[in-house]
Every structure is written in C-alpha cells, then in structure tokens.
Amino acid sequence: MDKTAQMQRWRLILGQESENRLSGMKMPALSDEQDLMDSALAAIYNKSENGGFGNAGGAGHGPSNPQISRWLGDVRTLFDKEIVKVIQNDAMTRCGLKQLIFEPEILENTEPDISLASAILTLKDMIPKRSKDSVREFIRKIVEDINKLLEQDIRRAVTAAVNRREHSPIPSASALDYKMTIRRNLKHYSPELRTIVPEHFYFFERAAVCAASKWNIILDIDQSGSMGESVIYSSVVSCILASMSSVKTRVVAFDTNIIDLTDKCSDPVDLLYGFQLGGGTDIDKSVVYCQQFIENPKKTLFFLISDLDEGGNRAAFIRRMEEMKLSGVTVVCLLALADRGKPYYDAAVAGKLSKLGIPCFACSPQKLPELLGLVLKGRDLSQFAKDAEKIE
C-alpha cells in the first residue's frame, strides 16, 4: 500500500472530525467512493449525540425514513459482507435505530446477520403487522445459510455412526464393508493368485434402524436472553435431526417455564418463533421434564445447551445430571453453540459437572457434526472438549 492510500485509510479511520488536524499534512483528497464510505461511517461513528442521521437519532425521525434505507444500501455496496454486519449492529445500538429494523424497506436492505436475528426474535412480540412477512423472510435467509453450512455434514456424521454399527447378511455391493471383509479373510490369501479369496463377506446394515435400537436425542435449550445465537443454531440442528428417521429427536426450550417444541421441528423458522428469548433460568425443572422421555438410557443422548446460570435449585440440578449419567445416558453440556468467541457461563457449575464426567464446553456450529459422530460412536470427548476450549 503506497503512502497516499495509507493516509486516505487513516483519514477514514479517524473520521470527518480529523479533517482540520490533518490539513497541515498535505492530506490527499478522498476518492468519490471513499467520500461515500466516509459519509456512511460518519452517520454512526461521529461524536454528535444522534449520529449522522440528522434528527433520526431514534424514534423521533419516524420509522419510514428513506434516508436510513438508502444508507443501508450504500453500506452493503461499499463494504465487505462481514464489515457490513458490524456496521449494521453498531447502527442499531449507537443510534437508537432498533425499532426501524421492523420496517419492510429497511429489512430488504439489511445484510442477514445472526446477531441481528437474535435481537429481532427477542422483540418479535413487538413486530407490527405490516412487517411480519418481511421479518419472517429475513429470519428464513439466515436459517437457510446455516442449513447449507451444516445439513450434509450432520446427516453424514449421524448416518455413519448409527446405520453402520451393525452388519447385515443381505448382500449389497454398495453396503460391502471392505475393511472388515479384508481383515477377517487375511488367512485366505492365495499366493498363486496374489490376492485374498474371501470365504465370507460382511455388509453394513442398510435397512432402517428398528425403533428399539434408535438413538433418542434430547436437546434441552436455554432460551434466556443471553443464549440468542445458540438458540438459532440449535433450532436448525434440531430440525435436521428431526428429519432423520434413524434417530428420535425431542426439542425442549426453557427459562423458568418449559415449552416442548418437538411438534414444530418440520420448519426451523416455525421452531424459532416458538422460543421466547429472555427471562430467568430454571434448568433443574427442564431436566425433570426431559427425564420422562428416556426409555433406553444407553441409547439416549442428552444435550443441555445452557450457560448454566441456574436460578432454580442448583444442587438438585447437579444431582439430577449425575443420576442421568449414572443410568447410562450420554450427557453433554454445550455452554454455547455459537461462533463468537468465549461465552459467559457459570464456571463453578461447569466445574462440578465436569468432575462428574459430564463434558462442558462451547462448540462452534462447524464442529457439531464431528461432535455428534463421536458421541454416537461412544468415543471419549476429552480431547474434543480441550480443542473446543482453545477456540477463541
């Protein structure tokens, strides 16, 4: 980067208020595109009380202000996608524009972002009637992006772990277990033919897993206000799992109340709308509710997705988690299912659960398929948990 470009970048970073201070340094003029960038950034990052939207510092400007919509369009044109998300979120928090996200023309110009979606879902009961369709479409775009990211890998991981555990006597070339067939027939190697002549072939079971041997996956999801991003990812994952016949899936949401959302798993947007983000936390009550759905403990996977900030009976909750694990249930606590650094969580409770052999860690969505595969295969999660903790 040459000196002129460096000075122009510093000018954009320091903002319009640095103009006078930089005038004595023979500051090169900004290009037309940089002028637009400068104006777009000044709208939210200058030091005036209401930002650069004139009287638009909040509700006073009115929700149908075309200036805001035009500004959002400029931002999407001028900056990279990830930077746009940061600028949008800053605009909502710094300039009091949160109520404007419910305007159809505003949402159409807003880059889909999971943090913004979380804010919308928190305020979903305040959405005006004219904006309901636009908000739903905005949420659906984010859901579709997450689904594209995770669906194939989750299906592949679960299918490999569940449907390939038993062998079948029914011949099928596509189901041939090459590794076991070779290993079990090594003694039938023919020196003359210089190859193995198998006496018996082994095939993977390709038929649907019978109901009694199906894995039962229970997702117990904390819907308190701090868990917004985790709720969105969990909803998409829940719907993917619920669509697979090889596992049974139950989805439970909780704060101080409990909502069974299993019947909404046909559509992740409907499922998301079933959550009530905000409120307190009673994890123990939710665990009690989930225990009734454990039929075969050794075939049950219980995911608690929570920051463990228990507002109910903490001792009873920990004791119940221990009982569940001792009964044979595979218990995993995800402190967050998110992509944004280390989450807040109650370290004392997490430490007590870890001492009981219940892994507690945050997990990025991209690592979830691997986690599911390891759990369903009965693998030790200690190394996975250590690696997850290193992710900032």
Structure description:
The strands form 3 sheets. Strands 7-6-5-8-9-10 form a 6-stranded mixed sheet, sandwiched between helices. Strands 1-4 form a two-stranded antiparallel sheet. The chain has 16 helices and 10 strands. Helix 3 runs parallel beside helix 5. With 392 residues, it is of the alpha/beta class. The chain has 3 domains: 136 residues, no CATH class; 190 residues, von Willebrand factor, type A domain (Rossmann fold, 3-Layer(aba) Sandwich), CATH 3.40.50.410; 38 residues, no CATH class.
N→C terminal distance = 30 Å
- Cα shape: globular
Largest sheet: 6 strands, mixed
CATH architecture of the largest domain: 3-Layer(aba) Sandwich
The CATH homologous superfamily of the largest domain is named: von Willebrand factor, type A domain
What fraction, in percent, of the residue positions are helical?
Answer: 40-55%
CATH fold annotation of the largest domain: Rossmann fold
Strand % is 5-15%
The number of distinct β-strands equals 10
Q: In brief, what are we looking at here?
A:
The chain is of the alpha/beta class. The protein is built from 16 helices and 10 strands. Helix 10 (228-242) packs across helix 11 (268-274) and helix 12 (283-291) runs parallel beside helix 13.
